[in-house]
Amino acid sequence: MELTKLDQELQSLLSSNLDPDTNSWLHSKLEQIISSSSTKDLYMTYSLLASKIDSDTILNLSSDTDEVTEYLRKQNATTLQIARIYLLLKVLKADGNFFVPKVANLIQVADIGELETFLKFLILLPDAENYKQTAVEALRTNISTIFEAISMQNPYPAKYFNDQQWNQMFLKAAFMQLDLSAILSIDERANKDLTRIISDYAHERWAASREIEPLFWRPVAAFLDETLLKDMERLFASDNLVENKVAAMCCYNSKEPKAKELLAQHPNLKAQVTNKEITWKNIKA
């Protein structure tokens, strides 16, 4: 997301969503914080926003379909959340060297709602990688809203997490039975270590006669070795049609010749995948 445009777009959104007095107050405080490099004023202004803006008011967005608007819509952004992230964006843009550690300290003592906001919209901040440790720590939380803030509909993990961190997020989301379709860039971040764990976990579930979330298999397509091909054979042989579809999707998206041969043994499924009648989006239908 282009920073100059983002800066202007958030400012425009706040101007149309805040009452004039609150909007004027926010901008006067911003000028004061930036001109005096005041940590105290930053912390006070960030805190006072909650007393001036209703936390439940959903941001009124235009009908535009640009990248920023679509992201705010997906995150169901509130006016308070965007006011907070706009405040942080502006001070970091004005003097990153001074304010980066100040913002890190602010988030360290944040309450659950503030931390949720920060994680959801972290990707909008300049040099967002500076706060990677905060994002990684969110993977270890037992608070579902915090974990969901960093993992669901959020491009930050795919852009900044290493494989170990990304795998931890994907597996925890699966164990928490969250909607895996809300994790972005699953295909791009698939890796061999993750597929090994997926196969091991599947065997444990099968041994316990438990079902497996279909989208859990999605990362394995590019890594269909002998073990995973046997898993695909088992899925094709299942009485569960959804599992048949999973195997077809994985084999179709694999470059492994043996996977193509396996798929060819199921011409009806192959035709449905080829014709986009079966996709990861509708695989449970």
Tag the structure with descriptive keywords:
elongated; mainly alpha; single chain; 0% strand; 285 residues
What would you note in describing this structure?
The chain has helices at about 5-15, 20-35, 40-50, 65-75, 80-95, 95-110, 110-120, 130-135, 145-150, 155-160, 165-175, 185-190, 190-205, 225-235, 240-250, 255-265, 265-275. It is mainly α. The longest helix has 17 residues, at about 20-35. The mean pLDDT is about 95.
Would you kindly provide a brief summary of this structure?
It is built from 17 helices and no strands. It has 285 residues and is mainly alpha-helical. The longest helix has 17 residues, at 20-36.
Overall number of strands: 0
What is the beta-strand fraction?
under 5%
Global geometry:
elongated
The gyration radius over C-alpha positions equals 23 Å
Write the layout of secondary structure elements.
Blueprint: H1 3-17, H2 20-36, H3 39-52, H4 67-74, H5 79-94, H6 96-108, H7 112-121, H8 132-137, H9 144-151, H10 156-160, H11 163-175, H12 186-189, H13 192-207, H14 226-237, H15 241-252, H16 257-264, H17 267-274
Helix pairs in contact: 1-5, 2-3, 2-5, 3-5, 5-6, 5-7, 7-9, 14-15, 15-16, 15-17
